[in-house]
Amino acid sequence: AFWLFMAVINAFFYVTKFATYFWHGRTSTAVCQIAALIVTMLCFMKSQKAQIMQNPDDFCLWHSMWHIGPLIGTVIDSVEVFILEKRDSLEDLMHDGVDENRGRYSNIKND
Description:
Layout: H1 2-24, H2 27-52, H3 56-67, H4 69-96, E1 98-99, E2 103-104
Antiparallel strand pairs: 1-2
Helix pairs in contact: 2-3, 2-4
């Protein structure tokens, strides 16, 4: 019963996370996160099938693989925050220095 309770809470957090990506994030990040979740669920289903078939080698493989899913999500989030957002903020800084009438970095004084 405890594991079912934890699974429901985890599912709630995943739904919240995907809703946040959908409304406030990049489409590419949301698609990557959903793809990672699909791969994770496929690995989980394969581990269940291996357990039913009493194949311990396949069960260990697929059970381990579905635990890697959250790590993949963390890598996707890290790329979003540490690479894509920094790139966008640098581009915004570059565009803030452009004056349509006088050209790039017109706010810099020339000596």
